[in-house]
Amino acid sequence: MGEFELIRHYFAAAPCAQGGVGVALGIGDDCALLTVPAGEQLAISTDTLVAGVHFADPCDPFLLGQRSLAVAVSDLAAMGATPLAFTLALTLPTVDADWLQAFARGLNAMAQSCGVRLVGGDTTRGPLSLTMTVFGRVPTGLALTRSGARPGDLLCVGGELGNAAGALPLVLGERTAEPAVAEPLLAHYWSPQPQLALGQALRGKATSALDISDGLLADCGHIAAASAVGVLIESEKLPLSKALLTFLGEPAAQAAALSGGDDYLLAFTLPPAELPQLLADGWPVHVVGRVVAGQGVTLLAADGQDITPATRGYQHFRETP
Ligand code: ADP
Ligand code: MG
């Protein structure tokens, strides 16, 4: 199968590539054309996933397609954007029909659930890697950035932390667990659900936001730096799932929540006055700390003691000490 036939068969023919709101021209020309309504801005983000670095190789291609798009779309959720479209740059070692079929099905399933359209890409031969660029729209001036946190704001997260990190030993085949424990953890790893609706609900309310990809400690460090504030995290307030606590025990579950990464839940700062209405509306908002004058991230024990660990989260190019 040649490059063009492959693109046509697996990607251009997929239901998620059939155009939709905002897509004036999709796959097949030199560029796609997107229409952004007046009064809105285009939000753009790119993510690369490399086999053996970001995912185990081999792995289930359906789950890979689903997960890689979810990870990319999560950045739109973090900005409060509404998804429009995405492109897929795919590097493949070989053309394996079964693999491509399953990958395209996983991709399509997540695209449909997020309301995002495949509008183009690139297909090359080489070691397996995927690059996705997502495009969203957000009312001008209302995007949620990392830089608006103010002393006095609450630090909140959009759900139970650490489940995807807890799943990693299962994904890598290092450990097993009974289905009641393994299934919810693996679901968080393989099909994270980008918190798009929550991100949109936080427009004009949250003072800063991001999606947690490298662990709460490391990601809150980005808010602290961009906003020139300090962030306090109260360890006893971290929401942990029953499955994670059963699988890891409390100290390791807490470490997974703080430093594990791959959660793709939103972390955001909120003036206290905004909290009651969000809770009344049923949004999954958990207060885990607060913003103070100062700098950096500090982890506090229940008795107020500073228990900030030295290691924060995963980094590809770690600074030498
Ligand atoms: P060009 O050489 O002009 O860059 P290509 O031959 O790479 O164009 O691609 C032809 C068309 O197919 C373009 O519209 C491109 O966006 C699209 N395309 C290529 N690879 C993919 C892919 N993996 N998924 C979706 N669309 C793709
Ligand atoms: Mg090309």
Question: Which tags fit this structure?
Answer:
6-stranded mixed sheet, binds adenosine-5'-diphosphate, 2 domains, 4-stranded mixed sheet, binds magnesium ion, 34% helix, 60s Ribosomal Protein L30, Chain: A, 24% strand, Phosphoribosyl-aminoimidazole Synthetase, Chain A, domain 2, 321 residues, alpha+beta, 10 helices
Would you mind describing this structure in some detail?
By secondary structure, the protein is α+β, with helices and mostly antiparallel strands. The chain folds into 2 domains: 3-139, 2-Layer Sandwich (60s Ribosomal Protein L30, Chain: A); 154-300, Phosphoribosyl-aminoimidazole Synthetase, Chain A, domain 2, CATH 3.90.650. 34% of the residues lie in helices and 24% in strands. The chain contains 10 helices and 12 strands. α4 crosses α5 and α8 (242-248) packs across α9. Bound molecules: adenosine-5'-diphosphate and magnesium ion.
Task: Please render the helix and strand layout as text.
Blueprint (H helix, E strand, L loop, with lengths): L2 H10 L10 E3 L7 E2 L5 E11 L10 H18 L3 E11 L4 H18 L2 E9 L3 E11 L14 E4 L5 H9 L7 H12 L5 H6 L6 E4 L4 H12 L2 E5 L7 H7 L1 H10 L6 E5 L4 H6 L5 E7 L3 E5 L21
Parallel strand pairs: 4-5, 9-12
Antiparallel strand pairs: 1-2, 3-6, 4-6, 7-10, 7-11, 8-10, 9-11
Helix pairs in contact: 2-3, 4-5, 5-8, 8-9
The chain binds adenosine-5'-diphosphate and magnesium ion.
Adenosine-5'-diphosphate binds next to helix 1, strand 4 and strand 5.
